[in-house]
Design goal:
Layout lengths: L29 H10 L6 H16 L11 H29 L5 H33 L1
Helix pairs in contact: 1-2, 2-4, 3-4
Length: 140
């Protein structure tokens, strides 16, 4: 199907992800629910708690707009794509972290696995924060 000039971006591949049931409540926002899940963990560590705070703050800032300054269809699609990609990656890192903490085996192995998964979670949170911070310039 041919697109009108300027609409070729619709043919670009976009992230597809079915939000897991565990992220469908209690809040309306998938990102808020992910933050709530992570903050409910007693052994997350202060560094990751701070990153979760930045994650949810940067996500919320994406929706603050001056009166009368909405997003066009293309900007909404870009925003949704970035949010989906980084929320999925952060959720997968969170699931790995939880799984490693519930692992069986020698204590030293479990500790190494928890630390490795903690580093992955920090990396994904930092990546999401950076992507969210960069978005306003490209979508506003």
């Amino acid at each position: 199907m041919s697109r009108p000039d300027g609409w070729e971006w619709l043919d670009e591949p976009r992230e597809q992800w079915t939000v897991p049931d565990s992220l469908r409540g209690p809040a309306a926002s998938t990102q808020s629910n992910l933050a709530i899940a992570m903050l409910s963990c007693d052994f997350l560590g202060h560094e990751i708690v701070a990153l979760v705070g930045r994650f949810i703050a940067e996500h919320s800032l994406l929706y603050l707009r001056p009166p009368g300054k909405g997003l066009g269809f293309r900007e909404q699609a870009l925003l949704a794509d970035v949010l989906t990609r980084h929320t999925r990656r952060t959720f997968e890192a969170w699931e790995r972290f939880k799984s490693s903490a519930e692992g069986d085996g020698p204590d030293e192995e479990i500790r190494r696995d928890i630390e490795a998964s903690r580093e992955i979670l920090k990396k994904e949170l930092n990546s999401a924060i950076s992507a969210f911070e960069e978005l306003p310039a490209s979508v506003i």
